[in-house]
Amino acid sequence: MLRVTAVAVCVAAAEAFAPMGGFSMPSTRQGRVSSISMMASKETIKLGTRGSPLALAQAYETRKRLAAAFPEDFGEDGEGVQINIINTSGDMELSKALSEIGGKGLFTKELDVALLKNEVDFCVHSMKDVPTWLPDNTHLETMLPREDTRDAWISPKYNTFEEMPEGSVIGSASLRRQAQILAKNPKIKCVNFRGNVQTRLRKLDDDVVDGTLLALAGLKRMDMQDCITKTLDWDYMLPAVAQGAIGIQVRSDDARTIKYISALNHHDTKICVDCERSFLATLDGSCKTPIAGQVPFLSSSVSL
């Protein structure tokens, strides 16, 4: 039986996901830092993030983990962790595919600048959006525990894209997803489809496309699993390198920040993501290349 996805309900619910408490959302400016301020604490540390709902969910998760690890420094609710929203070029230019306007670095360039200018102490990233190169004097110190790395298929009309008739339209800006979709059903059309999760689901609800794919990890982090038509296993749709991982970038000479951030590292995730990114770098992978790859952690070893 066909499952009808309640996309509009999912989008409305997602807008209230953030644990905002008694403080308000700041305005954002491209390349500029806007902060969410909280009560005073013994220590203050500045977190840099993009401003999408998913990016903020990841920032709040990082703040929660810092508070749990260092409650005496940052407060039990993380009031010493200042969240700074930085609007990036990739968030502003949505009409073109990433491959046409500069690739993955568009989501990190302004964050890199803020980090190097000491406007923030560390940056929280969705790792699948981070280039394999990083600016000098910065590195990825920590990976948080990885979420489910699979892709999710979302469509109010079709259970799978293999059953879609000729001329049907799937929205996806990912060349990796497009290549795997068209290998299974070459009669359908893939179109550029960008924006945050909520924006894409609204377009789907408005019949701009017949279906789309999103990372399951992001939907789970925003408690939006009800939007999913079907979860796609690896042998059906191989995920992107580093999908499902949250990484934390620091300045390499900032011993104070590294002391705190290193305590959050999830060893197994770090090993797997480092291996996947090494594989991607060896192939010179970018948003212009349809490359997928996953490294499962198997006891004391990994395999690609």
Describe the structure.
The chain is of the alpha/beta class and 304 residues long. It folds into two domains: 11-146 and 244-302, D-Maltodextrin-Binding Protein, domain 2, CATH 3.40.190.10; 148-232, Periplasmic binding protein-like II (D-Maltodextrin-Binding Protein, domain 2, 3-Layer(aba) Sandwich), CATH 3.40.190. The protein has helices spanning 7-14, 53-69, 71-74, 89-92, 98-101, 109-116, 175-184, 197-205, 216-221, 255-262, 267-282, and strands spanning 33-36, 45-49, 81-86, 122-126, 138-143, 151-154, 169-171, 189-191, 211-215, 230-232, 246-251, 297-298, 301-302. The strands form three sheets. Strands 1-3-2-4-11-5 form a six-stranded mixed beta sheet, sandwiched between helices. A hairpin with a 2-residue loop joins strand 12 and strand 13. Helix 1 (7-14) runs antiparallel to helix 8 (197-205). The longest helix has 17 residues, at 53-69. It is globular. Mean pLDDT is 84; it is low at 1-17 and 20-30.
Task: Provide a short characterization of the protein structure.
The protein is of the alpha/beta class.
The CATH homologous superfamily of the largest domain is called: Periplasmic binding protein-like II
Look at the structure and give the mean pLDDT: 84
Main beta-sheet strand count, sense and barrel state: 6 strands, mixed
Order of helices and strands: HEEHHEHHHEEEEHEHEHEEHHEE
Measured distance between first and last alpha carbons:
36 Å
Task: Note the overall shape.
Answer: globular
Report the CATH C-level class of the largest domain: Alpha Beta
Helix content percent band? 25-40%
Question: Which regions are unreliable across 5 or more consecutive residues at pLDDT < 50?
Answer: 1-17, 20-30
Order of strands in the sheet with most strands: 1-3-2-4-11-5
CATH architecture of the largest domain: 3-Layer(aba) Sandwich
Q: What's the CATH topology name of the largest domain?
A: D-Maltodextrin-Binding Protein, domain 2
Structural class: alpha/beta
Strand content bin: 15-25%
Based on DSSP secondary structure assignment, what is the total number of beta strands? 13
**Number of separate helices:** 11
- Total domain modules: 2
What value does the Rg take, in angstroms? 19 Å
